[in-house]
Amino acid sequence: MSGHSKWHNIQGRKNAQDAKRGKIFQKISRDLYQAAKAGDPDPANNAQLRLVIDKAHAANMPKKNIDRAIAKASGIGGAKFEEVTYEGYGPGGVAVMVSALTDNKNRTASAVRSAFSHSGGSLGASGSVSYMFDRKGLIEILRDDLDKSEDDMLMDALDAGAEDMKATEEKFQIFTDPSNMTDVRDALQEQGYELDTAEVTMIPQNRTEVPADKAKQYRHLIDELTENDDVADIYETGILPDEDDDEE
Questions:
Q1: N or C terminus: which one in the chain shows less Cβ crowding within 10 Å?
Q2: Whose CA is closest to 224, among 91, 59, 64?
Q3: Among 90, 96, 163, CA closest to 122
Q4: Per the record, GO CC terms (predicted)?
């Protein structure tokens, strides 16, 4: 039995690693699509797309996945993809926004609705929770091997045109006006900074702690949404009971 148990433990760890890798690839695919859609699908003429492709390579993302995401943005293959946003409340009344990229809105809407329903949440009308978020440019710079104090980093960020900055133990998070994100990104790169993230995203104005008795349902909702290939991003205001307030 010990060999059987060991095999299950190894298989369980492998499944968990595969799921984590899948989530990373999913986010990078979304970033590739948006970068190619917003600019030139040729990375030689699109600095943002080159940045995301570099991140994809660092994550060992297969070339076919990279090419597929860029093809979606450029319309190669005939399929037309649309960006759709769904809004609702998860367990405990936590606000959740789901950004999807789909070639079949009926399929995606049904899957997203089912995910909320399975977890005791509910979809709402357009605008029902979006007012709880601010659309911001977000640039993240890892602090590993970066010899910069918080004050110096803040000054460089402000000089580049940023609005604000937050520092954690792992990274500097720089916030910009959405229309100014690319200018700030380019200015920081010209200063020699290596960026881990540069995107326009939705930042919750306030966070809500998920009740302990709803935490399992809440995790299930986020996991089910994440596993949906059509879902590009999830924005939510929830803090699970074992999370730190300062974590993203």
A1: N
A2: 91
A3: 90
A4: cytosol
Give the residue carrying structure tokens 């990104």: 185
184's tokens: 């700030």
Q: What is the CATH number of the domain that holds 36?
A: 1.10.10.200
Please give the residue range of the domain that contains residue 20.
Answer: 8-74
Report if residue 177 sits inside a domain: yes
Instruction: Please report, for the domain that includes residue 170, its CATH number.
Output: 3.30.70.980
Angle between helices 215-226 and 105-118 (to 10 degrees): 160
Q: How far is CA 32 from CA 26, 89, 130, 203, in A?
A: 10, 29, 24, 21
pLDDT digits 0-9 by tens, 74-93: 766 556 778 899 999 999 99
Cα 92 to Cα 39, 96, 156: the distances in Å are: 40, 11, 40
pTM score of the predicted model: 0.74
Q: Where would I find the beta strands (DSSP E) of the chain? A: 82-89, 95-102, 122-124, 133-142, 164-167, 171-176, 197-204, 208-209, 231-236, 238-239
What tokens were used for 227?
Answer: 């596993």
* Predicted confidence (pLDDT) per residue in 214-234, tens digit: 999 999 999 999 888 888 889
